[in-house]
Amino acid sequence: MPRTVINLILCCFLSVCSKGTAQSTVELRPPKQTFTYKRVGNTAIKANVYRLAGDDPRPVIVWIHPGGLIMGSREMLPADERERFRDAGFIVVAIDYRLAPETKLPEILKDVEDAHRWIREEGPRLFQVDPKRIATVGASAGGYLALMAGARVRPKLQAVVSFYGYGDIAGEWYSRPDQFYLKQRRVTKADAYRSVGTRVISESPPTTRNDFYIYCRQNGLWPREVVGFNPATGSDTLASYSPERLVTPAYPATLLLHGDRDVDVPFQMSERMAAVFKRQGVVHQLYRLEGFNHAFDVFSDYPPQGPPTGLNRPKVAEAFEVVVSFLRKQLAY
């Protein structure tokens, strides 16, 4: 995918994330609060909190952003999704985490766990969280992290929602050159590494690190550069970071949403995850969007051919209502 297209994707994503909705009202929508939930050296790792007025304890949604674990930030939470969650009575906490390749996956997962711990311990005092009702929602790589949170976060989450995420990082889909990305302009190693650095960061502008992601997909290097292990020699280690290998009967109830025309994360990733849940007896649902591509809740196609559509399309709005209903049921709200 040409860098200009990726730039368009991320800029449009941030555009739709920053806009409010007609349902928002000042008295019911306190301003966004930003907290630093963790520091690593000189790096502050932050979270945005969106809540409703009042002091009543409320269930919380922990939202984890996409970006291949390489780029992006908490600001990518789409505004229409955020406001629909708040309309349903949830507090929403959008978190950052340290980004690869400067930070490898094991440390990224520690950030995710620490964010949940901070929300559980500090959230009741800071923003009226009910610590016994926590769900995690993520998109793409954020969906992967949400699925990992389901396996790793303790005490156990009440629910997990994965938008076009993946339960396997050891397979060929990530460790071999990807045919979709090979059809795009080739990114040189020099250009790829010029877009990243050595300083630890936990958020990035939308247009500075995309070449590195494309380079990894074109060369099958994502596991090595992001996880820190060579698939040829570290397959067992990679498997230990694959959610589909970590599911037990105690795993939280999970909703998977995926377009069956996804060119970035194969639809089969969610099919496989659903099969694992079925074998383990985990409450789950796979919501298949026929004819829809990656990032279907933000764009009408991928790569996008026009402005973001968000929840304006009926089938997408319907899918998001399934998400809200699922979360309300699992969080008993």
What does it look like?
It is a single chain. Helix content is 38%, strand content 17%. The chain is built from 12 helices and 8 strands. The protein has an 8-stranded mixed β-sheet with strand order 1-2-4-3-5-6-7-8, sandwiched between helices. The N and C termini lie far apart (42 Å).
Helix and strand layout, with pairings?
Blueprint: H1 3-18, E1 33-40, E2 43-50, E3 58-64, H2 79-87, E4 91-95, H3 105-127, E5 129-139, H4 141-152, E6 159-163, H5 172-175, H6 179-182, H7 189-194, H8 210-219, H9 222-227, H10 235-239, E7 253-259, H11 268-280, E8 284-289, H12 314-330
Parallel strand pairs: 3-4, 3-5, 5-6, 6-7, 7-8
Antiparallel strand pairs: 1-2, 2-4
The helix tally amounts to 12
Strand order of the largest sheet: 1-2-4-3-5-6-7-8
Number of strands: 8
Number of domains: 1
Low-confidence stretches: 20-26
The share of residues in extended strands comes to 15-25%
Radius of gyration: 18 Å
CATH topology (fold) name: Rossmann fold
Q: How would you sum up the major sheet?
A: 8 strands, mixed
CATH architecture: 3-Layer(aba) Sandwich
What is the mean pLDDT? Answer: 92
Distance between the termini: 42 Å
| Relative helix content | 25-40%
CATH C-level class is: Alpha Beta
Shape annotation: globular
CATH superfamily: Alpha/Beta hydrolase fold, catalytic domain
Structural class: alpha/beta
Order of helices and strands: HEEEHEHEHEHHHHHHEHEH
